[in-house]
Write a structure and sequence with these properties.
With 402 residues, the chain is α/β, with parallel strands linked by helices. The chain contains 15 helices and 14 strands. The longest helix is centred in the N-terminal third of the chain and has 29 residues, at 2-30. The protein is globular, with a radius of gyration of 23 Å.
Amino acid sequence: MHVFFLLLVLVTVVSVMGIIEFVQHQKRIYSIPIRIHVNGTRGKSSVTRLIGAALNEGGIKAITKVTGTYPRLILEDGTESSIYRKTNANIIEQLGIAKFVAERKAKALVIECMALEPQYQSITEIQMIHATIGVITNVRLDHVDVMGYTLAEIASVLGRTIPKNQYFFTSENQIPEVLEKIANQKKATMHLSEASSVCDDEMKPFSYIEHKENVALALDICKHVGIERSTALRGMYKANPDSGALSRYRVELSNKIITFYNAFAANDPQSTLMIWRKLRDEGALLGTRIVLLNTRQDRLDRAKQLAEMVGKEIHNEADLLVLIGQSTDVVESMSTSYGFEKNRIINIGWTEASDVFENILSQTSKVSTVVAIGNIGGMGNKVVEYFSFQHISKETGSNIYD
């Protein structure tokens, strides 16, 4: 009986503390006038960074939190700090961010959604963020094991973060009608952003490879909160790219030129194909065209999707498919079954980044272009860092984005 009483008291105390914390969080989050919750399959981190930088340039004190390749907190002056995690990522992290922003009396919180499971997406928005502006960058086939195997299913999960009776912005161009239906059910005012609203000259000042869809989306949100286009763009040009952003490294060695594109962050087939076509249409795929696919054993479903895309969509455009990482024998079999000829596949497997570089160098007669896809984890990051180092060490003074 005594033990039961103690347990009852303990449960009561914990419950009361939970209620108090919940009430305090609601006060904190509502003390932040502008709350922008950014969700979507691709481009979340980039769009979050662009919006935060533009708001601060426009005089709205904003703090930005991205999950991205690495979780980062970006202050009003643009300085960044890493977010230390004692355990795996957990949506409870958003509560601490909200407390920090409220204590600094910021006018805006721009926060990237870190939830995947449907119930956690709902909890993040309804109980934690209470967004005044909801954002969904796009809907692509990714995380199908928890979000659904069709675009419509994934859209219904992402749509859980559309805020009720508020404003909703998206640049989704495949099934916007699904998101519109959800927005109407929640009585949210929807705005569809168009990449064509951004001209080429507005893209040139970016110090990295950004997408018009992301810029158009961020610009429309800035217009909504009263920031002029030129001011917003000026802030965006100052924003640091996410470590997973599409980047380019040019290496000159042994009278050979290798241009390496880090497209690892676009790890679903649709986004990857879009990047390939963008580079192709801009005439950037020079010399020997190499697809470098990095795979992880626990992400073979994603490898299968990418192998299918390469085999069916670009096998006539790519000269070589280089496989690195885990379970590459399985991926090689997948690739050939989808139409990529075995004699054009180089199966390197798990090795050092320097070996990958030397192998690609040996396959380059004079000029080659490497488009790295798949997973940034495992060998991916090491390969990017190696090409980045080679670019810097061989730099001759010219800007790689000229």
